[in-house]
Amino acid sequence: MNVRTAPHRTALLTVASALLLTSCGVVDAVSGSESSASPKKGDDITVGLLLPDKETKRFEKFDYPLIKTRVADLTHGKGTVRYANALASADKQSQQFEQMIAAKVDVVLVDAVDAKAIAPDVQKAKDAGIPVIAYDRLAQGPIDAYISHDNELVGEVQARSILEALGDKAESSKIVMMNGSPADPNTARFKAGALSVLANHVVIAKSYDTEEWKPEIAKANMTKAIQAVGLSDISAVYSANDGMAGAVIDAMKAAGATKIPPVTGQDADLAAVQRILSGEQYMTVYKSFIEEANGAAEMAVAKVKGRSIEFDSLATDSVDSPTEQDIPSMLVPVVALTKYNIKDTVIRDGVYTVKEICTAGYAADCAAVGLK
Asked: DSSP for 37-59?
């Protein structure tokens, strides 16, 4: 994926200005006939939301509720979200997409199970005059916009954390890579980012792609890796997300590990944050899904309402997919979350409370890093 970013990274300032103008009624005024004289749609809009699975905990717990709330906020309570989860089935998601088109939703936000397989459905929406915004994963086909994170940077952050954890022992250490689903375009980018850092520093002893991001598959593959490499010879595990990180750790415990080597993750699942506190998992990548979800809702509403100034202020980046060039995009920053910055990330952003994290089994771990 080629990514082009607007000069000087002025996105946040521009977005803030656009939203302020919108709240004061100025955007409609300055955008002339495009918005104020003949808006494409009023507040009574329907946003179709297609999410890929429930294995990734954030989708049900955060993304859907956040998008639903933000759409309502932006439409004075008149806008609605029509939601469907594909349960990791590309065929099911295709059926759900067709139902969205038949229902004549005003815009579709889609996080594709299979980025290539979804392309015909994106084209059908385009033919029906329904804009499509790719959410979290870059779908193929004539999408109108894309919102996610810099996914190669995610892999780089994970890999740098491994080298940091290993320190002087990094050179020639044996690493197992537990990558995500091959049908997810982000998987290749996470992997490319990680390998760009790990290359020439460590030995990739085993590497696996994990169908549908399923933890049970990751656990089975980790068991194979332990048998092939030897438990004591595995210096660290690159795990692309938290669900698989938990499975990897379980496999090592089952093999008799008393001390878990550094294991990475992604998504800042509650269980992962607790594992990080206890020392079982080294880190996770915290991607502000609050900013991502709110940004997606804002882009969707702006697109439907024909507010091009507001839309452009959100989509200040540009990416290419295998089928499209120069897709307007919003890329949200990422942070390496360790036990030492939990307070400044997921707690500060209201993702979790101290009470949710610091349950009885983690009280001592929380006290050790000043979480009260």
From this structure: TS-S--S--EEEEEE--SSSHHI
